[in-house]
Design goal:
Elements (H helix, E strand, L loop, with lengths): L1 H8 L1 H4 L7 H23 L10 H15 L3 H25 L9 H20 L6 H15 L2
Helix pairs in contact: 3-4, 3-7, 4-6, 5-6, 6-7
Length: about 150
């Protein structure tokens, strides 16, 4: 689980963004999510899917089991979520300083909006055909349009 869950979802491993604009990060974020999804589907798709669920659904199911049964999973998930929040926080603060987005934008609320759209859409669409990254991109770019300078 350390390899397939915690290392895979670690923002340090998942995102290699080294600078640029918030809008560039949004595009990088979506590309990285697509790459991670392809990797996960490659691990889970053994050609046997009797329930016809999306592989995203199976992955969420695995995450829930890890949280319930894996030692220290709660603390490990909390650390991953905080790393992800810090990544978004740093990029949003940089965008505010550069004048890319409005200075009065509340950083913590903006971090929450970007993250919650991603996690909410991921979870909801897991019950259907899996995350539509085109829709994710449109929604994240819409949030950006609301806060840009």
């Amino acid at each position: 689980m350390d390899k397939y869950i915690f290392a895979t979802q670690d923002p340090a491993n998942k995102f290699s963004f080294r600078g640029g604009t918030l809008l560039e990060f949004i595009d990088h974020h979506v590309e990285s999510v697509e790459k991670t999804m392809r990797r996960i589907v490659g691990l889970l798709d053994d050609g046997n899917n009797p329930q016809g669920c999306s592989y995203n659904f199976y992955y969420f199911h695995l995450l829930m089991q890890v949280r319930q049964y894996y030692p220290d999973a709660g603390a490990k998930f909390a650390a991953l979520f905080e790393k992800d929040r810090k990544l978004w926080r740093d990029i949003i603060e940089r965008a505010k300083s550069a004048g890319e987005i409005r200075a009065e934008v509340d950083t913590e609320e903006t971090v929450a909006m970007f993250r919650e759209v991603f996690y909410g859409l991921s979870f909801e669409q897991a019950f259907l055909s899996g995350l539509d990254t085109g829709e994710l991109s449109r929604k994240l770019r819409f949030i950006y349009s609301l806060i840009k300078a």
